[in-house]
Structure formats: structure tokens, C-alpha cells
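Field guide to reading this record: the first block holds the primary sequence, the second block holds the structure written as C-alpha cells, and the final block holds curator observations. Each block starts with its own label. This record concerns Podospora anserina S mat+ genomic DNA chromosome 3, supercontig 1, catalogued under organism Podospora anserina.

BLOCK 1 — SEQUENCE
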Amino acid sequence: MSVCWTGPQLSRFPVPRWRRHPRHSLSSLCFPIPCSSNSRDKLIGQVQKLTTAPMETLNERQFDRLEHDFITALHILHYHRVLDAYGHLSVRNPLMRDTFIMSRSMAPALVSSADDLITLTIDGAKPTDTSNQNQLFSERFIHSEIYRQYPSVNAIVHSHCQAVLPFTINRVRLRPCIHLAGFLRPEGCPVFDTRNHEGMRLGPAHSENPPDDGSGSSGLLVKDEFLGRKLAYKFIDTKTTVVLMRGHGFTTVASNLQNVVFQAIYTAQNAAVQKEAIIMQNAAMAVVGTFPTGADPGIHFLSKAEATAASEMCEDTVRRPWALWQREVEVCPLYQNSA
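BLOCK 2 — STRUCTURE
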């Protein structure tokens, strides 16, 4: 029996995950143990397999975690009434950036495992597994066209949230009025209206006068690449993170899953606060008739500087609400997540 430098006995001393990167040499894992030459060679071989594991292996583990977080995000959005039976979430696939992940067409609260998730191509929003062809959201083109045009976008939420809907059908602009919604455009969120594009979608013959019988209508839905592309154009200003959709809802984009969930929730909360402020202001006007001399009758929205500072603060602290929201859905028996 000789004493040699070799790797740890893996069954008793698992190698820390961070040490499995190729940049960590074999010597960084070694310590002296007595062993025969055959055992030594076997152990060295086992350690070498770990220390030379390709980065794809680490990414696959991270991908498994992403699937779990994706389902958690769906549950959080339902718990906070941003999504109900309708609406959807997507995330860009970090292993193949020309694809993205959505759930199959089902209620977000009921998504429970990786089997409920589908990978789609950004080009054409087609499933990479053709057996999933009949399980797709009709509005997946919202996601594919935004990902196509904006490489920095990695997560998208499309919601029909009731609190936001009134701002999609009148001239009152949704603007940031609470500090947690500093990501909203201070001058107001743009509104996408399918009516402005129906004629062009049907071709040159109808570009100016779409048919009046509704035969060419999309039903306010973004069900093809053309309308998806037109919606994506609304995000051309890099400061635009939320676009409202007339009579339909809103879409928000972000660089990661946690941020897009944060934005979706606080878009809804900002809309609720702004609506109440408008009601309060109008009620005061009805009772008093006019505001006292020198009083400011307007709603005090965030300035551009305030919105920017508030948005930066929220990005730095987004993990705090995420941890709370994650726990809320973990303890609720409605939500199951085996991914």
C-alpha cells in the first residue's frame, strides 16, 4: 500500500458544484489518502470526469431551476390576480436563444410540471416538438416577435388584468403614480390598437378600407406574425416596458423572470391606485364645485427623474418581494410545482 495524491472518495465527499468547472485543476481537489495503484487510477478518473465537465452541464442544471422558477412565476401572477384562466408568460431559452418557453394552452394556476411546458422557435412561433402542435396559445406571436426584435428581452407577460383595462379604452393615460411603478413611462404607456393594422394585415386591397362585416377582424387578438410585429414596434423606445392593448390588456417585457413578474404586479397596482385617485379627485370636485385658490387639483405623478430613481431601486431589491411571493404560492395547496 502506498500513499499518493488523489481525489476524494466521491460517495462520502461530494465535490462542490462550483468546483466542477474546467478551470479548477485536479490538484485543487486533492489530499493524501492511502490507496492501491488500481484504486488511485479509478479515483483519478472519477474526479477528472467532474472537473472537466463542460459548461453545458452546468447550464442544464440551471435550466432545470429555470423551469421550476417559471412555473412559480405563473403561480405568483395568478395569486396576485394578474393572470386568471387567461394570459401567459414566456422566457427566452438560455440554452438556445432562438427559442423561448411557454406553458401549453392551459390555466396558469394549473401548470405543475415540466411536462406542461413547450419550447417554441422565435422564427414563426412553432413548437420544436411537433407533437405539441395542438396545445399552443393563439397569441404566442406576441412573444416571438418581441424576442425577435429585442435581444435584450428575456421574459414577457401578457395579461388581461381588470385594473388595467379601463386605461386601454379611453384617453386617460396610465402613468407612474407610486414609486414601485417607476418602470412605467412618465408621459404615459403607449396603447396598441389592432384596428390600426387590420387593413394592412389583410393585404393591399384592404389597406385603407378593411371589410365592415368583421370577416377580417382579429377579434383584438394578436394571432399572427404581422400583428405581433406591430405590437413589438411599440417597445421601440427602450424606456417602454409596458404596452397597453385596447380592450384587451397589457404586455410587459424585462431582462429576466423576476423583473417581469414584478412589473406585471405593480402595473396592476399602479392602475388601481391611479383609478382611485381619479375617482377621489372627481368626487371632491362634485362636492366642492371647485378647488380652493392656490390648491393643485391634479394628480401628482412621478417625474422622469423620480421614475428613473425608483426603477433603479426596485431592480436592486426585486429579490425581496420574489422570496415572499414564492413562499405564498408554496404554501397554497392550489399550486403544484414538481419541476
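BLOCK 3 — OBSERVATIONS
The helical segments are 37-51, 55-79, 140-149, 198-202, 225-233, 257-288, 304-317, 319-330.
The longest helix spans residues 257-288.
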